[in-house]
Design goal:
With 288 residues, this protein is an alpha/beta fold. It is 38% helix and 17% strand.
Amino acid sequence: MKVGVMFANTGPYSANADNVRALGQACEDAGIESVWTVEHVVVPEGYQSAYPYDPSGKMPGPEDSPIPDPLIWLTQLGAVTSTVKLGTGILILPQRNPLVLAKMCATLDQLSGGRLVLGVGAGWLREEFDALGIPFEKRGKRLDDYIGALRAAWGDQPASYDGEFTSFDPLYVIPQPVDHTVPIVIGGHSEAAARRAGRLGDGFFPGRVSEEALIKLIELMREAAEEAGRDPDAIEVTAGSAAIFGEDPAGAVARLEEIGVHRVVIPPLSYDPTDIGRALSEFTARIT
């Protein structure tokens, strides 16, 4: 089972270069496979949209918590590491210009030796979309369209694309990613996200849901993949589980593997940069 660290660009690791280095080195020393960032360009004061991953409807921490740009933060992490994969979990794709994003991702992927994994989602914070001047409606369709635009931009050169929300005549997007593509992971715990992952994703990241819900979402993803003529076994599933912190973490990991999970994600475990290495190493030792 692969292990990734989620919420990496938060707390003391958010905007301190020395702490980013400490986290990255601790992850590599502990055998962590990947590090995942979160994203909000802005957090509107007093937002009313319901955060879907907590019963309170609010994101963890105060509204003015620092959330660095995920790609710039991952560039710093990539510069001080050599093996850990660099993941966005997730980047809100409908808020991005797909050609600008394609260039940014390709540059980071080249500089890091092909380590970028682009997790994307539709977004939930209407007030953020309003502040950025981007329609909240049809964001799912915009997400689908932008995935197509990204893959076109990373394809044969000159690249062209004609979609519902973006189009471009033949042009060059250089540099290209190391493998002429970047894996795109679909984030979200909804049925729509599961079907999108089956149709379009290289991976599926439903996050942390109940085992019953996770099984259902994976089944939906696999059904959608088969309907689209794709191999469901080729779609990598990433998920979290509170059970891995219980009395039998190795058994909990084995159960996740049994239901089709390929990577488990955990929080940093310690927000003390001098202690993160010990915390991660002890955890990985418990699950192997």
